[in-house]
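ok so i was messing around last nite and threw this chain in just to see what happens. nothing serious, just curious
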Amino acid sequence: MSKDAEAIHELRRMVLATTPRELGLTPTKKHPRVWGALMEIGYPEGVATLVALLEGSVSLYSSNGGGIIGAGEHGSVRRAAIKCIGAAEPYVEEFSNTTDYPLPDTGRVKFYLLTFSGILTGDFDEHLLGEGRHTLSKLFYAGHDVITAIRKVRERSPP
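result:
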């Protein structure tokens, strides 16, 4: 594993080990259960991980190294991320408690919902989600809205 990939795996581990208390987050009327979400998509070449936290942190990175950290500094990205986290609230019952965090297989989407009472997960078929044929398609689309916002910011910013 390259040093970049090792760093990405460590960032993912750190996010999954973070508590809402460490970030100064408490339940609110708008976000009573979910304070963060990871959406991971399995591709043949690796896994793309989107991280969105209620305090404004947003990252997008690849399991084989590289990515974008700190995208939540941009208002459009932060707003999309908070909307994505809010989109998870109605679906909490669709997920299971977990303390194990494997990456998804190719063609699968794994969500990790960071809730005030623990981490929840679910593993779903990417095509069903993408075609709008799954209960969680709205959450999948909300995650892609965050990715789109990140891309738009990157297109406007010189390298």
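not much to say yet. The chain has four helices and seven strands.
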